[in-house]
Specification:
The protein has 299 residues and is of the alpha/beta class. It contains 13 helices and 10 strands.
């Protein structure tokens, strides 16, 4: 049986285009579809090359001033071609396929990278972006720093779990407080829960709406709420108002609801993920977080 890690590496490798030919000029006009990929482009110094982004590319705020090409899964060739891009960068979530074929036929280089929340795929993505931007060493350094932060966080979580059982968690992806989708296994949401030291109660694959009865039976210790149209406390308030079963559950009754920016779930692992994991872990293990904060404040 092929080890899972090698299988993922092979999958990510197939998503990457052929290496650049020797002396081939680097693409200068980029369009990016997928929040995480756009954030990495900025971090690697590629923002001046961006001429357009999709609606999930909201960070940093400077990207919001660029022309929008719409939602990554519903791209239109005409709008993208009007920006005269050399390259469209996106994850395997982008589409529809006929539009990508139109762009290729028009001479646009279409780079489709891995969307999995997985360090193997992130490594492959950064390698490819570093090559296309001409900053290979900078991309390698960014990956090393990222991995170091995750290692440090994992050590902190292991210590916190010596005094507290991992909380049972559900991540709910809603739209204006409507019936939410629950993050199951093999999702970015599920990855965040597990990496932050929680137990994901949802064992289905992908994002799926659960019945009222199923949500009541799970009765999570803690809820993570993210909404595609509402932010902050408005997101959790709308969800609890529209879903009484959640309002009556243990997490809501104990005030254990954490908020998440939905753009963190798009396009694979982005640069802001370590900070978000730290925030989630602090919410999962508040006593350990308080001790850490106290220790840091000591002279």
């Amino acid at each position: 049986m092929i080890p899972r890690k090698l299988t993922l590496l092979a999958l990510c490798s197939t998503l990457l285009a052929a290496p650049l030919a020797w002396g081939e000029p680097l693409p200068q006009r980029w369009v990016s579809a997928g929040g995480a990929l756009s954030e990495w482009l900025v971090l690697l110094g590629g923002e001046p090359k961006l001429v357009g982004v999709d609606s999930t590319s909201q960070h940093p705020q400077s990207l919001r001033r660029l022309p929008s090409i719409g939602y990554q899964r519903q791209l239109a060739a005409e709008g993208i071609l009007s920006l005269r891009p050399d390259l469209l960068l996106g994850s395997e979530e982008i589409g529809p396929p006929p539009v990508l074929a139109q762009l290729k036929a028009a001479g646009v280089q279409v780079e489709v990278l891995c969307a999995r929340a997985d360090l193997v795929c992130l490594s492959a993505n950064l390698e490819r972006m570093g090559l296309l931007l001409g900053v290979v060493q900078q991309a390698q350094q960014a990956l090393a720093a990222y991995q170091q932060r995750l290692t440090q966080q994992a050590a902190w979580i292991a210590q916190a779990q010596q005094n507290q059982v991992a909380p049972k968690v559900l991540l709910l992806l809603g739209h204006a407080g409507g019936n939410p989708l629950v993050a199951g296994v093999d999702t970015a949401g599920g990855w965040l829960i597990e990496r932050a030291g929680g137990q994901n109660l949802a064992r289905h694959s992908g994002y799926k709406a659960l019945s009222t009865e199923a949500l009541a039976a799970l009765d999570a210790d803690l809820l993570i709420v993210t909404d595609r149209s509402l932010s902050g406390g408005a997101a959790s308030a709308a969800l609890l108002k529209n879903m009484p079963v959640l309002a009556a559950g243990r997490a809501a009754q104990q005030g254990r609801i954490l908020l998440l920016d939905p753009t963190l779930l798009v396009g694979g692992l982005g640069p802001r993920v370590p900070d978000q994991l730290a925030a989630l872990a602090a919410g999962f293990y508040p006593a350990a977080h308080a001790l850490t904060a106290d220790a840091k404040s000591q002279p």
